[in-house]
Every structure is written in C-alpha cells, then in structure tokens.
Amino acid sequence: MYVEFKLLSVIWMLASVRGDIAENPQVIKIATIIPRDKSRLFSIERVRPALEIANEKVRSMGLLPHHNITVNFADSKCSIEIGMKEAIQFYVDREVHLFLGPCCDYAAAPIGRQIKYWDLPMITPGAMARDFAEMKASMFRLMTRVGPSVNSLVLVLMAVLYEYQWSKMKVIYNPIGQNYVTIRYCHIVADGLHYGIPGKPQYAKFEKEEEILTRMETEIGRENGVSSDGIAFKKRKFEPAAN
Length: 243
Description:
The chain is an alpha/beta fold.
C-alpha cells in the first residue's frame, strides 16, 4: 500500500507540473531501469506487479481521467555503463517523463547526476549510500529516495550508542558481502558508518580466512560484542558528544 501511495502521488505531481505532459495529456511515460536478474531484491519480476497495481488504482480512482500511463522496463544489470546507456536511450527516444530506478547504487549514481540537465525526476527505493544525501543539493537534486538508506542507519546507531552510553563500536564486514542486495552492499554500508559516525577509526584487515581465528581475539578483544558477515573489518572508538 505504501509503494502504491508513493507512485500515485508522484504521477499526480507529474501531471500537474510537467509542461510537456500538459501539451500531450494522453501519455505519462515512466522508464523503469532495474535488473532483470530474479535474484536481485529490486528485480523486474518483483517490481512489475506493484507498478501494475498502482497503475490500475490510478485508473479506477479516476485520478488522471485524461491520461494514460505507460511503464517501460530496461535491464540495468546493476551496471554503471548499462544503466546509463538505457537512460540515454529512453531520453533520446522521448520515452520518459519519470525514471524509476536504478536501485543499485553504482548504476543509480551517473543517472542521478545527469537528470538535472534533462530536467527529469528520478525516484528510487535504492541508492542507499550516504553520498546521495550529502551531495543532494549539488549533484542529485532531482533524485528522490523512498527507501531505507545508510544515513538512517547511522542515526539509529547513534541513538543506540547515546542511549546506552557505549563508547566503542567495531564493524566487521566483507567488502563484497550481500551482493544480492546491490553490488558491494557491505562496503557501501561500512563506508557510510565510517564517515557518518564521529570518531577516529583504526583499521585491521584479514587477508586470509585462517587469520580470522588467529587474530580475531587480538584485534577485536574478548570484551566486545560484534556482528559479522565477512572477513575484513574497521574499528573505532566512539566518543559521545557533550550536552
């Protein structure tokens, strides 16, 4: 229901403010650039039914009685170059008023930078990296993220650290872990935590799997609770801010 509401709101705003749509009120063109790979969290197979339901809601509720909504799909392959190529093709063919996706961070970034020159909006439930928020005004002003992000994760962790007055936090991660979510997902999360949480980080890297057992106690210590999905880690001391 939340996804449907978001899409309905976006379509209504598009019809209200886009001049080229007003001139040709019969068609609103949505270009959806996401992976065709079924193993991806935001695959075409998973997303298409939600868009079809939202489109049907628009028609049944009579929100845009003089408009038809077309949703076209292209396979981003979670790739920087292929995602950008598909976006350019939609633009050259005049087949887009709104981009949905890409969701994979590395595919979303170049399109998010380009759309301000095309004056076209982009909505994505992905693009979770911290930089999309930090550089929104300068690079990504027409990109809207509607899903969870590393920025919100940092706020949650900060609140937990302050609440329990914990002074140390250590992150263990595999740079290529959880790739089914997005390429280098664990690296993106760890990078956001690194720059988002105050403190002076120290690093240690396990080059071989056997080092996990031989060096874990030395690098992590026995007194700390940790969560892990991989073999490389960052560690830092967290100093709560004075009130």
